[in-house]
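Tutorial handout. Part one gives the primary structure; part two gives the three-dimensional structure as tokens.
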Amino acid sequence: MYNGALAAEYAEEWWNRRNSAFPSFPVDCTNFVSQCLLAGGLTMRGYPDRYRGWWIQGGQWSLSWAVAHSMRWFLEEAAERVSEASMLIIGDVICYDFAGDGRVDHTAIVTYIDQGVPYVNAHTNDSRRRLWTYSDSAAYSPSIRYYFFHLS
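Part two.
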């Protein structure tokens, strides 16, 4: 059973470093979120098919483990998509389509909520308790689309 608090604890511990037990990528956001989800107890599935499920094993991983757009499609099946950021809780995931072109570019995990407003941790441009909108990001555009996933 998934425990969002444990996922967020992992995200707090590793937000600005890399855990040598896992691969590290130049674009590391989804790999980081995957590690957080695993720490929270999300069950891996789909091995050894890289195109199905969500898993890491024996030096290999599914596309959804490390690719933001693939993570979005995995979460569409494995989590509940909600319509508003205010519906998220600790340990939930936000996928970002910065250009609004239907292709997810980034993922982050909710680690803190202040008066109903989620804040996220992420890798690539390592971030801790960043406002969920990412409006301060160079990648932000007025066309941005968000995908909110509730896992607990």
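Part three, for discussion. The longest strand covers residues 106-114. DSSP finds four helices and eight strands in the chain.
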